Amino acid sequence: MLHVSKNSLSVINETVIQSFPTLIYLDLRGNYLSCDCTNAWFVNWTLSSNDTEVESAYDLTCNYPDKLKGHKLLDLDVGSCNVDVGFFCFLSTTTLVLVTLLGSFLFHFLKWQVIYAYYLLFAFIHDNKQQRKPKGLQYDAFISYNVHDELWVMRELLPQLEDEQGWKLCLHHRDFEPGKPIMENIVDGIYNSRKTICVISRHYLESEWCSREIQIASFRLFDEKKDVLILVFLENIPSHQLSPYYRMKRLIQKKTYLSWPKPGEDTRVFWQKLRVALETKGTPEMEHPLAGI
After folding, report:
1. Beta strands 139-144 and 193-200: pairing type?
2. Alpha carbon of residue 100 to chain centroid
3. What's this model's pTM, rounded to 2 decimal places?
4. Cis status, amide bond into 159, omega within 30 of 0
């Protein structure tokens, strides 16, 4: 027998009650019982137990919450307190499977469209931020290239453009901010430069990071409608080999470009045309005398 009447109890602890397996009588009269889900187990237990008599069970009243004050405890609707764990697990698992299938479908069939849309949004947000900042660009050109072509960039492009022509270039290994996410470094480098020079090769076309760089540069080109993108081909790439890289193919169809001379050929015309391209001001994009050579 357990007498706990007039003890200002509001919640009946299930663990305490279960610790008395031979309990045959329970007196809870005069307590300030709470009619909510914390006592739902007690309502169910009182109505179903054949071993324990709860004194004046049907006379026990609620003291909390205020809207139920004075109501009978055993009239509490405990249905809303029961969670169907099985249904919840089924619903969660089904949702997870559907999301996974949808994600796999999008990645398999629309991979590049999804990636392109993401980086367009990223560049759009960055572009809006840049428009609020005072004008003044840090570099003359951002150099987008694949690591396999770094030797050409360091031995040919960098000495000619920086040392000979006096341009200030933005290079990954030298000018990216340490600790900053690489995509933020790329976007900042492109938008803080007057131009973007893409050094195109087969390695470049196969690089995921180079693809992202040219996507951001393309967005800036079409958004600002200014001549900010210069394409430099290090090797001859037939049109049919460009077909998988539809964005690059679209660019060379709309823009003129430069081709690096073959071994033994004079490079002076190439460097002169590249100088002209870099000197072109940020006017609306139009054809300029840089036909592929």
Report:
1. parallel
2. 16
3. 0.54
4. no
Cβ contact 36:63 at 8 Å: no
Structure confidence by residue, pLDDT tens digits, 259-277: 999 888 999 999 999 999 9
Q: Where are the domains of the chain?
A: 2-81, 136-279
Closest to 12 measured CA to CA, from 53, 41, 51, 52: 41
Cα separation, 90 vs 83, whole angstroms:
13
Residue 77 pLDDT > 60, yes or no?
yes
Amino acid letter, residue 33: L
Phi, psi for residue 258 in degrees, rounded to 5: -115, 145
CATH superfamily of 136-279: Toll/interleukin-1 receptor homology (TIR) domain (3.40.50.10140)
CATH 3.40.50.1000 at 2-81, yes or no: no
**Looking at 19-23, 41-45, 73-77, 220-224, which range is the least confident one?**
220-224
- Residue carrying the six token digits 């004050």: 69
Tokens representing 134?
């005072």
Band (pLDDT 50/70/90 cuts) for residue 2 is confident
Same CATH topology for 2-81 and 136-279?
no
Give me the pLDDT at residue 14, please. 84
Q: 3-class DSSP state for residue 136?
A: coil
